[in-house]
Amino acid sequence: MTSNIIADLQSKRNIILENWIAQRELAEDFGGNFNSTDDLKTQSAELLDILLQTITSQNINDLYSSDLEPLFDYIGGLTVSRAKQGFSPRETAVYIFSLKDALLKVLGETISDNRELYTTTLEVSKFIDNIGITSFETFIRGREEVILSQSDEMAELSTPVIKVWDGIIAMPIIGTLDSARTQVVMENLLQGIVDNESSIAILDISGVPAVDSLVAQHLIKTVSAIRLLGADCIISGIRPEIAQTVVHLGIDLSKMVTKATLASALKYAFAALQLEVRRVAKEKSNL
Amino acid sequence: MTGTMTTNNRETIIIQQERDLIICRNRVKDFAVRIGMGIVNQTKLITAVSELARNMLIYGGGGSVLLEVVSRGREPGISVVFQDKGPGIADITKAMQDGFTTGKSMGMGLPGAKRLASEFFIDSVVGKGTIVKIIKWKNG
Q: Ranges for the STAS domain (chain A) (predicted)?
């Protein structure tokens, strides 16, 4: 595309914008998401201005050119704001692609030479396609960020420290114990021990589906860290099938205090703290 | 591997990141439940798969896991094939020893998985990749 044509397009900015908006208003999927066509006009005018200002005869074929950054930044912002307004990615893409039709219509009227019109159409088409792709990528990145932050929140939520008794805290672990999760578990548990001035921590793994060598290694590290604080750690909730698997795997957990149930871990903890749970005989008057 | 095996059911899972391991374990569990495998063998199989898939991810840069329901005579089983195009294992005999690791792990992955599975087969070519196949029979 020659700089002449770009200058031409710049001078016909108003016609392109009118074409574009007229097309959007006619389109079937023009929903009620915009309160008025004024919003659509303002947004479209902004996008078209940035496009016409940044585009040159060189960067139209070089999408990684740094002078196109303002355009792609604007597209990113536009995608995010439209997504928040409830537009589907399809609607946003169709909106961007319809700019192509508006541009090509004006080009068809401006360029008389067929060969030139063909190459220019190809260039413009490719360029707008790429803007559409950028918009789509932004949309997906936004979604991925939401998923990642949700999984972080879940990791936080699912590792509560429970004070069971004076000096005893427990933490039930539900789900897979991967490296990131272990870090959260360890931090919360160590902080819990300090905050509650506990001398015994019970780590219940009833809800952990499988204990492989990495999970075992994480457990061993957690127990060592707890011992450094001068507290003791009991691992409870070892199911029979887990016990067999760990033995077959060849992992030695014998240096740790392990119990089958949380109840037996608690009993052990009471014994260690020289506490006793007794049934109290009911007073005769209550009978 | 002994006996004749007929294939009824198969599925491929691609392992590229740690969260793929969770999907892989869950799929293996579904397969094991489908053939009526008991909870102990299920757990052994899932743990073996977890070790091997993680090995593949850490040392092989990811790869594919092929799950298959197989049978020997009247007994069904699950066959799992792990294939990567990683650097390969230079000394398989050494890698199969308890406590040997080139990384920071416990070195229990390969030998542990072999003990947990009913049948275990490994082949590796340096520079080309590694293939590990395990079978866990329903009552094996």
A: 158-269
Which chain B residues touch A179 with a CB distance below 8 Å? 18
Strand order in the sheet with B75-84: B9-15, B63-72, B75-84, B129-137, B119-125
pLDDT of A95-115, one tens digit each? 888 889 888 888 888 888 888
- Here the CATH number for the domain that contains residue B19 is 3.30.565.10
Q: Looking at the partner chain, which of B40, B50, B98 has a beta carbon nearest the beta carbon of A212?
A: B50
- Cβ separation B25–A210 shorter than 8 A: yes
Topology (CATH) of A3-152: Globin-like (1.10.490)
Specify the pTM.
Answer: 0.66
From chain A, the residues in CB contact with B116 under 8 A are 245, 248-249
Return the CATH number of A162-272, one of 2.40.128.710, 3.40.50.410, 3.40.50.280, 3.30.750.24. Answer: 3.30.750.24
The reply to whether residue A214 touches residue B44, judged by beta carbons under 8 angstroms, is no
Q: For residue B74, which of B135, B134, B6 has the smallest C-alpha distance? A: B6
